[in-house]
Amino acid sequence: MRALAEGWRARACALLGALGGCGLWGLGQGAVPLPPGGAGVFGSQLLQYVEAQAGDGHTDVSAQFACTVIYLGNTPLNHGSSTLIRLRLGADCTGFLGALTPELPLVGGSGELVTGARLESVVPGEVMLELRFARELDFVIAPSSDGRGLRLRLLSGTRGKQSGGYVAEVEAPEGYAINLSSSQQKIDPQAVQAAASALGAPAYVSETDVEGEHWYRLRVGPFSTRREAQRVLQAALGQYPRAWLAINDESADLAATERASVASVAASGAVDAELPQEQRVQLLRDARAALAQRQYAQAVELLTHLLRQGEYAGREQAQELIGLVRERAGQLAHAKAEYEEYLRRYPQGPAAERVRARLLALAAASQSVPSSGEFAQPAPHSQWSMAGSASVGYQYGLDQLGSGPGSTSSTSLNAALLYGDLLVRDHGPRYEFTGRVDSGYTANFVPNTGGSQDQTTAAYVQIDDRTLGWSARAGRQSLANEGSIGLFDGLYVGYQLNPKISLSAAAGFPAYTNYSAVSSNQKFGTVQAEFGPYRGAWIFDGYFYDELNAGATERRSVGFETRYSMPGRSAMLLADYDVDFQQLNSATLIGNLGTAEHWIVGFYADHRRSPLLELSNALLGQNAPDLAVLETEFTPSQIRQLALDRTATSNSLTLSATHALGARWQFITDLSALELSGTPASGGVAATASTGLDKTISLQLSGSSLWQAGDLHFFGLRYDNSPESRSTTLSWDARFVLHGAWRFGPRFSIEQLSDPALGGSQWLYLPELRGDWTGRRGVFELIGGYQVQQQSPLAGQLPASTQDARHLYVSAAYRLRF
């Protein structure tokens, strides 16, 4: 198996133009120290952690890897209940270039929208990261500037000041409400009044049928943001211990709702002189911006101008938006009237379903207490809360080389994994205290492959001042934006200067992996400023980052990020420039556009130094363990030149298109090209050649409810053509509903690879079975696969030279949220 595994690694290294060959990291040329962030330590997972942090109307997701990964594309592109992200492993990922046992990382943090993650490899040198969400969502993806991370923003439909990420379009938000109690008897009106007075929010009675029984529910709401709803929920738990958060679950008959006591602006029938379309677009844009800044009176005035126009394309957007503005301003009766006017005019409009959900939540409200917004009325007294998750898993891998009596086999992996994530909060009248720990332990049962190890992804305390708008966090934490440091041990502070400008700073010691101990050898500091939203669509970020290594400048860079987001289209530009080396570290442009013909087209263009340009890159290929020793062999200027020589440049481009084919089918295709430059010989390290242009085309056809209601099928075809090799891959991936909460997922792929460097033609077969059970608080996942590789000899070789390799793996994990 070792020989064939070395062939896999050789193929990947040749394809990626590994710096100095894979032997630089201890394969075939003698072991040498790993560079920062390199792979190869037992027990280290390729996917270091997945973090989900809930915000106002969005959830930010960060994924950090143990080494460099190159984004190739994802499907679906920007909308769905999951996304499959395809990544190519960088030259410093030598420990992961063979058969990779699937990884099932625990998703940490406070985001309930991310229900699971899975990482696996089908083609050597590439991995696929699947992220699953609680429901269908819009999302946008961007790589970090260091090439070792990914960032996603899940968009749940509101716009507000979003610090450090992407922004969603202005749409009506989810219908958040707090269910205080349930009864089969009618609820006393005095109880409704008491709930409204105690919690400072509209209280009402909702009715529903559950399994043939009629129930009355005492509720408060609706709320415009999850954060506000969570605040009221915490305040309510003391008096209503069975209270829970409800989202868009009102199901009453709309015909029975109470009519609003006020009229809609549009119901007056007044019509002004027709405005040019450009002016209408600008008025709507200004109204969105006013709403984002909570300037409700100004937003109503602007929208009134639009609603006094005659009927025109896009008018329904203004009609829906004025209902949202009235609702957020606490004018619930006016909001009901505007929503009802929308349904009267546009019963089949694009937002009709969303408006009905909002109207149903408003219709039963019996009090006129205004919804206070994110920074308004605090909880009446301090409220402690606790949440967390735990995971236990097991992984087993068996390698076999050859077949018949002469075959050899060995256990490549036998480990148990334990992870836990605990979050405690104190919601005080003004301050909010947060403490969080996310750690784990990997027990290794394979002798002579390294020992067991523990790891810590997060261990910090945080204080937020809701009145002045500042926050501070100390301990081990992650930082995705301000220089993309990833994990670090130190301090972060943030300050909301005004509704459009936020400032932040961080300093401490980088922790390149989650099993890194606290070390003061390297120090960093970074500051960031963010402005937006501008004209309701733009966000601008800028940062300065400085890092020292043994007293020398490791990296000193400035960066910026510009994001544009409007319904149906978005774009993003990211750049990082090293002012010390005077080199462009990375530049990425991402965009997507939806068309009226149900096409979604996207593009991704990326130019970056690979790996990230740092002074310690000079250690690659050297015997020196650190820069201090290297300084005894080379001068400072020579070390800087070595760092430049060991850092290649990669350029990649991906074009994607998605098209719905009726109600059940969806077609997805992407074209990508990647090239990694060569590196010169210097400091005793040999030169490497460029990979040349590697071209890939991928086609996918997905269908639902084909064999049974609710099943999913993904049929894929992928062709890769590089100067050194060619490969074709066919795949089928399915999900079936079994009984209750059980799901079953068979998968099969077959690849034909022609690569003279590996001695001929290879066939790779991967049958895999996945099963999972999802409960209210727990998830159980089981994966088993059997990868087979058959190699045929070149012309003139004897049949005895044919090699077979097999890799059996089993992975199981149980996650519990509490």
Describe the structure in your own words:
The protein is mainly beta and 818 residues long. It has two domains: 2-156 and 382-817, Maltoporin, Chain A (Beta Barrel); 176-363, Tetratricopeptide repeat domain (Serine Threonine Protein Phosphatase 5, Tetratricopeptide repeat), CATH 1.25.40.10. The strands form three sheets. It has a 22-stranded antiparallel β-barrel. Strands 1, 2, 3, 4, 5, 6, 7 and 8 form an eight-stranded mixed sheet that branches. The protein has a four-stranded antiparallel sheet with strand order 10-11-9-12. A hairpin with a 2-residue loop joins strand 22 (552-566) and strand 23. Helix 6 packs antiparallel against helix 7 (332-345). The longest helix has 16 residues, at 277-292. The chain is globular, with a radius of gyration of 28 Å.
Features:
mainly beta, Maltoporin, Chain A, Serine Threonine Protein Phosphatase 5, Tetratricopeptide repeat, eight-stranded mixed beta sheet, 10 helices, 48% strand, globular
Chain-wise SSE layout:
Blueprint: H1 2-16, E1 47-54, E2 58-65, E3 69-75, E4 79-89, E5 107-109, E6 114-120, E7 126-143, E8 149-155, E9 176-183, H2 189-199, E10 203-210, E11 213-223, H3 226-237, E12 244-247, H4 277-292, H5 296-307, H6 315-328, H7 332-345, H8 352-363, E13 383-401, E14 408-427, E15 431-444, E16 453-465, E17 470-479, E18 486-498, E19 501-510, E20 522-534, E21 538-549, E22 552-566, E23 569-578, E24 583-594, E25 599-610, H9 627-630, H10 636-645, E26 648-661, E27 665-676, E28 694-704, E29 712-721, E30 726-737, E31 742-755, E32 760-774, E33 778-792, E34 803-817
Parallel strand pairs: 1-5
Antiparallel strand pairs: 1-2, 2-8, 3-4, 4-7, 6-7, 7-8, 9-11, 9-12, 10-11, 13-14, 13-34, 14-15, 15-16, 16-17, 17-18, 18-19, 19-20, 20-21, 21-22, 22-23, 23-24, 24-25, 25-26, 26-27, 27-28, 28-29, 29-30, 30-31, 31-32, 32-33, 33-34
